[in-house]
Write a structure and sequence with these properties.
This protein has about 100 residues and is mainly alpha-helical. The protein has one domain. It is about 95% helix and about 0% strand. It has 3 helices and no strands. It starts with a helix and ends with a helix.
Length: about 100
């Protein structure tokens, strides 16, 4: 029996279906693996970006803190009056709410 004839028999058709199913399973596995790899890469990139933004924010906050401390040391009376004014404004707003 030739190979062309084998595809016409039930056994031959079953074999072809089995082969096709096996190919499809392999294809799905490959696609799933690619999706997983892409998702992992995207996660790592987002994590690195978030870490960089976090570090930049921490550094900026530390700079502002240092500048504020220097300002208070250089002009303590002015800083105290500004703090009192801000407190009075916040108190007035809080009282109206």
């Amino acid at each position: 029996m030739s190979r062309a004839d084998a595809g016409k028999t039930p056994e031959g058709m079953a074999s072809q279906i089995k082969d096709k199913a096996s190919e499809m399973v392999d294809s799905v596995r490959d696609t799933a693996s690619q999706v997983r790899d892409t998702a992992t890469e995207q996660y790592q990139a987002a994590k690195e970006s978030a870490t960089e933004y976090y570090q930049a924010g921490r550094e900026k906050a530390a700079q502002w803190e240092e500048q504020l401390e220097n300002y208070v040391r250089e002009q303590p009376v002015k800083a105290l009056l500004i703090a009192a004014g801000v407190g009075a404004v916040i108190g007035a707003i809080w009282k109206r709410i």
